[in-house]
């Protein structure tokens, strides 16, 4: 059976997956952040869901990640491409570019981390050695090559609690821990997708240097670099779905 793809839409994507109309669905963990939409990429219909809700109203720690993942699964998704904005910590890439991380470190706390909550079915201990699907990452990397987009293949994503940005000292600790990028929404999204049996890969849109890594003010950098990273991602998605 062919894959049915979903895109988990992140920050800076007004107009993709955030409109008021769309499929309303309720899961056993409640309602997702927003209605689920169907968007055409060439000949392929793709599910889209805005993780921060309509109008970007949900901070990272208040997102119902469990409902989001289950809504996509119940509507037929077998693979999720997650769009996540990040700050870059190391010199592996620059703002305005994108990356396909292959590892993560979870610094979040207090979020509902599992579908196996002790009330519904047997507990399973998933293998999370490789948190992102190698198959899906490879296909996205090939799409980046075909579209001529500068894309770093690999790297470690540090998932922090938010919604505030990190201090320079905290970013220095992340660097010592081996992180290349810092964001707020890959976890528990990635592990929940694994529990639900969905392939999952992150397209990291690099929109600024992390705190203390550049003299450029972070919010000024966001204004300058977000559109470039978004355009690069759009090109990769079009090449990815065009090759299916």
Structure in words:
By secondary structure, this protein is of the alpha/beta class. The protein has one domain (5-117, 129-242): Nucleoside phosphorylase domain (Rossmann fold), CATH 3.40.50.1580. The chain has five helices and ten strands. Strands 1, 2, 3, 4, 5, 6, 7, 8, 9 and 10 form a ten-stranded mixed beta sheet that branches. It is globular, with a radius of gyration of 17 Å. The model has no long low-confidence stretch (mean pLDDT 93).
Order of helices and strands: EEEHEEEHEEHEHEH
Indicate the mean pLDDT: 93
Strand count, sense and barrel status of the largest sheet are:
10 strands, mixed
In percent, how helical is the residue content?
Answer: 25-40%
The proportion of residues in beta strands is: 15-25%
Q: How many strands in all?
A: 10
Helix count, DSSP H or I runs of 4 or more residues: 5
The CATH topology: Rossmann fold
CATH superfamily caption: Nucleoside phosphorylase domain
CATH level-two architecture: 3-Layer(aba) Sandwich
Q: Indicate the overall shape.
A: globular
Topology (elements, then pairings):
Layout: E1 5-9, E2 37-41, E3 44-50, H1 65-74, E4 79-88, E5 98-100, E6 103-106, H2 134-147, E7 151-153, E8 156-159, H3 168-177, E9 181-183, H4 189-195, E10 199-209, H5 218-242
Helix pairs in contact: 2-5
């Amino acid at each position: 059976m062919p894959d049915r793809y979903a895109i988990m839409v992140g920050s800076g994507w007004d107009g993709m997956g955030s409109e008021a109309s769309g499929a309303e669905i309720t899961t056993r963990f409640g309602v997702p952040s927003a209605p689920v939409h169907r968007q055409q990429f060439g000949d392929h219909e793709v599910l889209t869901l805005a993780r921060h809700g309509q109008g970007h109203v949900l901070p990272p720690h208040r997102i119902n990640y469990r409902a989001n993942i289950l809504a996509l699964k119940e509507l037929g998704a077998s693979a999720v491409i997650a769009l996540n904005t990040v700050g870059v910590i190391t010199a592996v890439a620059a703002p305005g570019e994108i990356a396909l991380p292959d590892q993560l470190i979870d610094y979040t706390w207090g979020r509902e981390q599992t579908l196996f909550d002790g009330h519904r079915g047997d507990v399973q201990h998933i293998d999370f050695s490789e948190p992102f699907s190698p198959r899906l990452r490879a296909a996205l990397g090939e799409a980046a090559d075909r579209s001529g987009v500068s894309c770093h293949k690999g790297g470690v994503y540090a998932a922090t609690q938010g919604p505030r940005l990190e201090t320079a000292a905290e970013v220095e600790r992340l660097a010592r821990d081996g992180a290349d990028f810092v964001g707020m929404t890959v976890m528990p999204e990635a592990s929940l997708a694994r529990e639900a049996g969905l392939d999952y890969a992150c397209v990291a849109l690099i929109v600024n240097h992390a705190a203390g890594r550049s003299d450029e003010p972070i919010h000024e950098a966001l204004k300058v670099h977000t559109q470039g990273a978004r355009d690069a991602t759009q090109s990769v998605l079009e090449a990815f779905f065009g090759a299916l």
